[in-house]
Fold these 2 entries.
Entry 1:
Amino acid sequence: GAVVSQHPSRVICKSGTSVKIECRSLDFQATTMFWYRQFPKQSLMLMATSNEGSKATYEQGVEKDKFLINHASLTLSTLTVTSAHPEDSSFYICSARVLGQVNTEAFFGQGTRLTVV
Amino acid sequence: GENVEQHPSTLSVQEGDSAVIKCTYSDSASNYFPWYKQELGKRPQLIIDIRSNVGEKKDQRIAVTLNKTAKHFSLHITETQPEDSAVYFCAASIKGGATNKLIFGTGTLLAVQP
């Protein structure tokens, strides 16, 4: 299947700093990528839909100025957690679909474990 | 709003028994329903999916059924093995702009006892 690579896999940062997470589709193009947040033993909560060349669409309750998303190319989307606080500590995971496909498998990255201290 | 409910939250079965996980969705326009398996610390992996134009799909020991009228879909695993132990998530595709977004259920922790 298609491969989605997420970097870094783990990051520890100080409270008040910003952290950037990259999501790359390695062997396919993706107009749309999705960013999820997963707390321990909980489900995948959709944060936003990242659209190549346009603004991201955020889910209700997700602060767009807190979680900046940039989708500059068909293979790369980035999520920046700005002014991180301990409550932002979580597992962030992205997924992507092959360009042009709507109801098909979404491929997931390996996730990023963010710890804010 | 869009919602996917999943039951049970935990399921323990003996090796060789069957396991059934059930989900309901709220958006009647949903037309794609994947199931993902997530092992501890790893990414979710698609194990089977079904589209709204069919009622059942089977792949070896795994099957999924869909009842569009009731807005229910279920995952059936037969002859369970210890390596089936993981968290299973159902999802429903919700229309969201140029593509459909996936809304996930709350997950089921399946433990297969040897």
Entry 2:
Amino acid sequence: GQQVMQIPQYQHVQEGEDFTTYCNSSTTLSNIQWYKQRPGGHPVFLIQLVKSGEVKKQKRLTFQFGEAKKNSSLHITATQTTDVGTYFCAGLEGGSEKLVFGKGTKLTVNP
Amino acid sequence: NAGVTQTPKFQVLKTGQSMTLQCAQDMNHEYMSWYRQDPGMGLRLIHYSVGAGITDQGEVPNGYNVSRSTTEDFPLRLLSAAPSQTSVYFCASSYGHSYNEQFFGPGTRLTVL
């Protein structure tokens, strides 16, 4: 079945450093979504990517979808303590309704 | 709008007991789903529904039943609870299909002794 792998599992940075998490799928995706979960909270939608090679930005966050639509990345520039949480990618195969999540990358930021 | 609501927030069960986790949404979303979250395992899809009367299995459906009699409600039933079902359960909904933004409920923390 479809598998979505996410690395690294944990990342600890100093405030102001950059952060990147990577997502890789075993199959070609029609859609990839990114979510953020604060400690003790529930996942909150960040963005959706659907086109090959797509790049989207939200302030300090940059999201990319690979040309082959099998990988994606989230890059945060100059991390802040408010960026703390676990970042998940979630992929969807074409024609499927099963949104499969990666295991997430837990980001901690040292002020 | 209340969004996606889940009850109860916390539950402790004994092995073999049954219970129903409730999920409701007031956004008229067609798509609803249940995930379980375990440490280091991310979110795993249990069951999903693309509309009233239609349900299907996700990645880890064993030990769980669902039904979707209305657009608003999507309860998850544990038939005979096992310690392996100790987890945090999230319900989610979206407009139309799963390729749209998922709105998650606050979660139910379940412990099975």
